[in-house]
Amino acid sequence: MNLRDALRGPDANLDEQIESYATQRVPADKRWPRLAILLVLTGNITAMFWFLLGGQLGFLVGWPMVLVPIAYMVLGATVIGGLIMRIASKEGLSLPLLSRGLGFGVKGSAVASIVYGVNYVFYFIFEGSIVSHALSAWAGIPVDSFLATIVFAGISLAALYYSWRGMHSMNILQRFGLPIFLVLFVVGMVMLGNGYVLVGPGQWQATGGMGAAAMWQAMSMVNGQIVFQGLIATDYGRFVKKSVGYRGTSALMFIELAMCAVVVLFGTFIGFTMLKTFEGSPNPEVSATDPGLYFAVIMGFLGVVFAFVTQVRINVMNLYSGSLALSNAADALVTRKIGRQWWMVGLVVVGVLVYPLNVLQYTDKFLAVTGIMTNTWIFILLADYFICRKAFKLAPSTNIEYEESAVPSWNPAGITAMVAGIAVGAAGIFGAYPSYYASFIAMAIGPVVYVPMMVLTRGRFYSKARKQQLESDQKLPQTT
Questions:
Q1: Which one of 95, 141, 307, 340 has the minimum C-beta count within 10 Å?
Q2: CA-CA distances (angstroms) from residue 39 to 8, 19, 273?
Q3: Of the candidates 187, 196, 223, 192, the residue with the CA atom closest to the CA atom of residue 72
């Protein structure tokens, strides 16, 4: 296979590209080369979210302790993402479809899918807002103004265009978008070095004093990402060929996360370097971790262009994954089929309407909440697959059922376990205990509740056929 073929997917008609197998298995002949999938994932690697996260982690724990949460994120996401991606590639199913057979049922999976889709609404607004912040710094356009909202809408339409045909159009965007990003980033770093006093790791001191609470807060911020990055990768990992094993999928995850870690460290470096520049602002730390703001200050109009290119590249992924989740929810809850592309349109509309709220100020709270929801969900799925199916043999671990005709509407074990995990996690968010423990406790409670319930019910709610078989066995007359 030559390089050109390795960077692109198989031919597909327009309907297949647009719908992107949102509610069915990906056929074996429509699988993509791993290098082509990694190219699509570069949109996530270069998201400005990582710059912001790096600054926040650095201000929390300083150097060298900032390496602890970063290493935890890379290794944790590699393991979890590698496992989930392998399951998705074997089955050719998105995570919402897998959830139907892995513990939630058809309508239960729809509830989890809606929660999953809401995550992307936030990330979509978050990433698009960064461009508006760049424009505000460069052209003096107020972030919460009508004009800024119009700019955000324009960026959203560009992302919509490049996500309309799913993996195929995103692959094209990332092919020419990555070189532009790299060139502009290098230019930005040169301008930073020429115009500012660089602050190296030896001067990265925790701004609030380093302590156990600060480290737990930093770990909590990345804990949601160890699962969420696996979720993102799985949306594309279902296109990985079945022959690729756990090592192959883990390698994909590690390469992606290692590159993300580099961007995170650059975010820490830029944050500390720019902190003095923003000393006169109302909140210097917030300004020094806002990449839309500081790239515009460093690079001027080029900073705005850099923010625009970067945000279109990541927001096509936010629209794509969000539309997959909502398509699956609708497929389970309504009788009329709504195409994946129309869910992207809906996400754009919601994003434009919510944009004026300036969601960047709620990043820490959002990461804590999403960590609770997504971690609980994914650890239930992994417990089902590796414990209930592979260890206890309660159901097959291949050809997982997902069709509405074969899977019950609800699996009480999955729903109960998820509600329990989220409830206990939410108690931490609302002050019952330190909130930075919440996502860790929630992701442990989910499997602890789920596995015993599945064992007690003998896998009754895996499929309609399994339920009928168990009920039939109970009615058989006893022999002596």
A1: 141
A2: 9, 21, 31
A3: 223
- The answer to whether residues 257 and 71 touch, using CB atoms and an 8 Å cutoff, is no
Rounded-to-integer distance, Cα 308 and Cα 321, Å:
20
In degrees rounded to 5, what are phi and psi of residue 39?
-60, -45
Please enumerate in sequence order all residues whose Cβ is within 8 A of that of 139, keeping only pairs 6 or more positions apart, or say none. Answer: 304
Q: How many residues does the chain have?
A: 480
Q: Which of 68-77, 94-103, 357-366, 433-442 has the lowest mean pLDDT?
A: 357-366
Residue 215 to residues 65, 219, 364, 437: CA-CA distances in angstroms? 8, 6, 14, 11
Quick one: average pLDDT of 242-262?
A: 90
pLDDT band of 474, cuts 50, 70, 90: low
HEC secondary structure over 94-140: CHHHHHHHHHHCHHHHHHHHHHHHHHHHHHHHHHHHHHHHHHHHHHC
- At position 382, the amino acid (one-letter code) is L
Which of 159-173, 188-202, 340-354 is most confident?
188-202
Burial class (CB in 10 A: 0-12, 13-18, 19+), 2: exposed
Query: Cβ distance 301 to 179 under 8 Å?
Result: no
Q: Which amino acid is at 144?
A: D
Task: HSE, CB side, 13 Å, CA atoms: give it for residue 62.
Answer: 11
Distance (Å, whole) CA 226 – CA 79: 9
pTM beyond cutoff 0.85: yes
Amino acid letter, 257: L
Q: Which residues contact 410 (CB under 8 A, 6 or more apart)?
A: 104, 105, 106, 107, 108, 461
Distance CA 409, CA 461 (A): 9
Token pair 């520049």: residue = 277
Residue whose C-alpha is closest to residue 105's, from 454, 401, 429: 401
CA 270, CA 289: separation in Å to the nearest integer?
8
- Give the three-state DSSP class for 63: coil
pLDDT, mean over the chain: 86
CA angle 103, 109, 114 (to 5 degrees): 145
241 to 236, 238, 245, 249: CA distances (angstroms): 11, 8, 9, 10
Quick one: pLDDT at residue 480? 46
44 or 366, higher pLDDT: 44
Report residue 240: phi and psi, to 5°: -70, 145
DSSP, residue by residue, 248-291:
HHHHHHHHHHHHHHHHHHHHHHHHHHHTGGGTTSS-HHHHHT-H
Query: Strand, helix or coil at 415?
Result: helix
What is the per-residue pLDDT across 85-130, written as a single tens digit (0 to 9) for each? 999 999 998 888 888 889 899 888 888 888 778 778 888 887 777 8
**pLDDT greater than 90 at residue 57:** yes
